Amino acid sequence: MQHPVDGRAWKNFDTKYPDFAAEPRNVRLGLAANGFNPFGNLSQSYSMRLVILTTYNLPLWLCMKESSFMLMLLIPGPKSPGKDIDVYLRSLIDDLKDL
At 14, which helix (H) or strand (E)? Predict the structure, then answer.
């Protein structure tokens, strides 16, 4: 297992944006989304979609620890948002740009 920052995609990003990579105070974030059925009845069509943000500037043992995850969104609904998840993420993206 390797730290996400050591992956090929991050190395490509560092090559493309060397000024960002050279500044250690810049924050590297990972966004993850997952869905679950909150009532435990898989035949039920109701689902919940959660969006989690984690900081990759931390060591591996800390950035993948549950206490380091930041819950950004809970998207409830009768079904998964699918391709329309961008509507829910718009406000989060705007806040991250301000940050």
Answer: helix 8-16
DSSP 42: T
Per DSSP bridges, beta strands 29-36 and 70-77 are unpaired
Confidence (pLDDT) at 21: 85
Smallest CA-to-CA distance from 70 within 42, 46, 50, 90 is with 50
For the purposes of burial, counting CB atoms within 10 Å of the CB of 30, is it exposed (0-12), middle (13-18) or buried (19 or more)? middle
Which are the contacts of 99, defined by CB distance < 8 A and separation ≥ 6? 27
58-89 pLDDT tens trace? 887 888 888 888 988 888 777 666 677 788 88
Predicted TM-score (pTM) of this structure: 0.69
